[in-house]
Design a protein that fits this description.
single chain; about 400 residues; Lyase, Ornithine Decarboxylase, Chain A, domain 1; 12 helices; elongated
Length: about 400
């Protein structure tokens, strides 16, 4: 059924699934390893604030974001748990990071000096070293020197040292194990020089599944929290519950005669008369245009193939084999309907991408409605949360 008040496209987020996934990860890594829940990119498209709250309730002790504005939104929502800023702190962002008690990542002397100059009380920082990503991070040979420098600055305390696996989701774990060996050597060098690190961490979701020797003091699961595996080679041995269902609505039906061309570019031509349904979903919502003429959706528990190009706000599907389709029918683009399932992984395969991109790509105009204990919050609450997120970030 179409949800009321005129909304025809929305995402239902199962908070019980998020909680179960966090609890399963926590049980798997054991009580001595902290969970730093990654809620970057609007919690992988699931909604920053509700996911952060439920993850902490379920056993995560810290949160990780990539942009300063996400940390600010969490603090202004009343969240008190430590928040690690995984990304860069620009000079103009230093006051905001410290005023909102966000834990910065430091990879250079200049940022450390600016943090120290602004701070008037102890500030915990994490140092990131590059062990094989060639991305944001300090060169390994400079790590001890930076930690020594930071430790001499007023107010700064090096709490964490971390890195990030590049290939822990692949069949060959050799490169990932070499990264781990490199990281442990850097950690040992720093600690042997008299600078203890209380929170070393390197595991992403793939590392959680494939490299238990890398758990250390904390792990940083992301995709696992949302009920998806990092890859075919990193399937967890514990059950996951996908949390997101993307829904839309049939807004028009018609019979197209044979020889009709559909949508921009006329990339599909009907060979026989076709019963067509128009779905109110498009790339303006973050649904990939690349799956034009490839993908399918669920209507009345059956698969309906997409015909023609996906437009900004709508696309056409063939419902010739689905009796009785009418305006107002629910359409499931990702998720389950009457026992049939279209997974984010399947959508990703159609779009030649990964499941991460499918959920994080859902744009803010898609209202999120949250389900807990079998009940969805009201549409009005969903719209209010949606508007609050837009204002915060």
């Amino acid at each position: 059924m179409m949800i009321p008040n005129g909304v025809v496209t929305w995402a239902e987020i199962d908070l019980d699934a998020i909680a179960q996934n966090v609890e399963a990860i926590k049980a798997f890594v054991g009580p001595d390893t902290e969970i730093i829940a990654s809620v970057k990119a609007n919690a992988y498209g699931h909604g920053l604030l509700p996911i952060a709250r439920i993850a902490l309730e379920a056993g995560a002790s810290r949160l990780a974001v990539h942009r300063i504005q996400a940390g600010v939104a969490l603090r202004e929502a009343g969240i008190q748990a430590p928040i690690l800023l995984l990304g860069h702190t620009p000079p103009l962002g230093v006051p905001t990071v410290l005023d909102y008690n966000i834990t910065p990542t430091v990879v250079d002397w200049e940022t450390a000096a600016m943090l120290s100059a602004y701070a008037d009380e102890p500030v915990y920082v994490h140092v990131k070293v590059d062990t094989g990503m060639s991305r944001f991070g300090l060169e390994p040979e400079k790590a001890l020197s930076l930690v020594r420098y930071i430790s001499k600055l007023p107010h700064l305390v090096v709490e964490g040292l971390f890195s990030h696996f590049a290939t822990a989701d692949e069949e060959n774990l050799g490169p990932a194990r070499r990264q781990l060996k490199r990281f442990l050597a850097i950690l040992a060098e720093i600690e042997n020089a008299g600078y203890p690190i209380s929170v070393p961490h390197i595991c992403n979701s793939a590392g959680v599944v494939t490299l238990p020797e890398a758990y250390l003091a904390a792990v940083r699961p992301g995709i696992l929290i949302y009920g998806m595996a990092p890859s075919l080679y990193s399937q967890p041995p514990f059950p996951l519950r996908p949390a997101l269902t993307l829904k839309s609505t049939v807004i028009h039906t018609r019979t197209l005669p044979s020889g009709s061309t559909i949508s921009y570019g006329r990339t599909y031509t009907t060979r026989v008369p076709m019963q067509a349904a128009l779905v109110s979903l498009g790339y303006g919502d973050g649904y990939p245009r690349l799956i034009s003429n490839r993908g399918e959706v669920l209507i009345r528990g059956q698969r309906a193939p997409i015909r023609g190009r996906i437009c900004m706000d709508q696309f056409v599907v063939d419902v010739s084999d689905i009796p009785g389709v009418r305006v107002g029918d629910e359409v499931v683009a990702i998720g389950e309907q009457d026992g049939a399932v279209i997974s984010p992984e399947e959508v990703a395969e159609w779009a030649d991408t990964i499941n991460y991109e499918i959920t994080t790509g859902l744009l803010p105009q898609v209202v999120r409605v949250y389900k807990q204990d079998g009940h969805c919050n009201s549409l009005e609450e969903g719209i209010e949360q949606w508007a609050s997120y837009l204002m915060a970030v």
